[in-house]
Design goal:
single chain, about 425 residues, mainly alpha, Glycosyltransferase, globular
């Protein structure tokens, strides 16, 4: 092990130079190039093992979950995947579509694979039964061999579930299967990073947050330090334009909806969680205005706790929001439902223990649980003892703490109505 670290360390100057060349060629800002040269986290990223969220020991003792009600849900879904054939299709498209459109319905059925694949991978961890690993690999290979990346981040945001499944089943994959699947993820990361180095559509909005999530998870999954550094730079550029000094996000002002606050923050925090799992604190990073993802969550908290309410989409600048309200699509009129922040606060609790009490409190108030994987990761996180001790009590959130010291939904925890802009 020490020899491997030594070899990685010896390659560090060359890797840093390669990353710098990539960023210079892409026209990265001068301050981003300076960060690459001076940030001490670079060495840690180079030595990081290849996984997105779940490393070899992630989740602690999996047998401890085996007899829980949550595990029963996982195993039931996994068993359904043992006989159901994969439904991979060449392209998914729901963005900008209304219910009843053919491609939207076809895409929705195909995406049922995602929760099943995650369940198969979790079942492999829970039971050690190779049948689950083999079937998860079959599903992953079906998508890797069929799907062609469109690089529309709204259509493709759900692929984060398949990246997690790859992590979880990593040690059960065949050598050839793992190479093909990781090649699929590498193409995903490179494509989105290349897009973000240019001028992609809706670059100031939640679209970019979803691009960053997909690029980051896949970069860490394949363990490529150059891709990781590019993702890190993209995260900082986006936080610098998307999160305002008061902690509000661009999408709130454009869409006049708390829904788009959570839809913007969830992917950003998932990317930050991947970085945290490798020893890098993206969540705490602040832009020149003094705000970052942590401050954006703090801005959201009064709404999530019910102290403030908001009528959704009243002054949205996006015509499609009115179209969805007109056809009766849920969530596009009326008061924001604070259950929509369950995943958001649960993710924040993984990233910063000060948010730990808020997720359980919101679950108790709304009856909605966060994604199962978030709960299981929380028990294995560094702040688990603090979180468990905090229980479900209320908490006072410091907005700038650095200054003062369905079964498918249950599994993947998607807060995302399909077809969002």
């Amino acid at each position: 092990m020490s020899g491997g670290r030594h070899r990685l360390g010896a390659r560090a100057p060359a890797l840093m130079l390669a990353a710098l060349v990539v960023m210079l060629a892409a026209g990265a800002p001068v301050d981003a190039r300076a960060e690459l040269q001076t940030d001490p986290s670079t060495a840690a990223l180079e030595a990081a093992p290849p996984f997105a969220l779940f490393g070899p020991a992630a989740g602690g003792d999996w047998s401890a979950h085996a007899n829980t009600a949550e595990a029963a849900v996982v195993l039931e879904r996994a068993r359904s995947g043992l006989t159901r054939p994969p439904g991979a299709i060449p392209v998914i498209h729901t963005e900008g579509t209304l219910p009843g459109r053919g491609i939207r319905e076809i895409s929705g059925r195909a995406r049922e694979d995602f929760a099943i694949t995650l369940a198969l991978a979790l079942a492999w961890r829970l039971t050690g039964d190779r049948l689950y690993a083999e079937r998860a690999e079959l599903y992953l290979l079906a998508w890797a061999g069929t799907y062609r990346w469109s690089f529309n981040p709204i259509d493709e945001t759900g692929f984060d579930t398949l990246i997690m499944a790859t992590d979880l089943v990593d040690d059960g994959l065949t050598r050839d299967g793992k190479a093909r699947i990781d090649g699929f993820w590498r193409r995903l990361s490179v494509g989105y990073l290349d897009a973000m180095d240019g001028t992609p559509i809706n670059a100031a909005t939640n679209w970019q947050s979803h691009r960053i999530k997909l690029a980051t998870l896949s970069a860490y999954r394949v363990g490529d330090p150059v891709l990781i550094e590019r993702a890190r730079a993209a995260y900082r550029r986006h936080v610098s334009t998307n999160i305002l000094a008061d902690g509000s996000v661009h999408d709130f002002h454009e869409r006049d909806a708390i829904h788009y606050v959570t839809y913007n923050l969830d992917p950003l925090m998932t990317a930050a969680l991947s970085a945290q799992r490798h020893g890098d604190d993206w969540f705490g990073w602040r832009n020149p205005s003094g705000a970052g993802a942590r401050e954006a969550v703090a801005w959201l908290v009064p709404y999530a706790e019910g102290q403030l309410t908001h009528q959704e989409f009243v002054n949205s600048r996006i015509k499609f929001d009115a179209d969805r309200a007109r056809v009766g699509q849920a969530g596009y009129t009326g008061l924001w439902d604070r259950a929509g922040a369950v995943n958001t606060l649960a993710l924040a609790g993984l990233l910063d223990p000060q948010f730990c009490p808020l997720g359980p409190a919101l679950k108790q108030a709304t009856g909605r649980s966060a994604a199962l994987w978030i709960g299981w990761m929380r028990r294995a996180s560094a702040g688990a003892a603090f979180c468990e001790a905090a229980g479900v009590g209320s908490a006072t959130v410091d907005p700038q703490p650095g200054f003062t010291g369905s079964a498918g939904t249950v599994l993947s925890g998607s807060n995302r109505p399909t077809g969002n802009l």
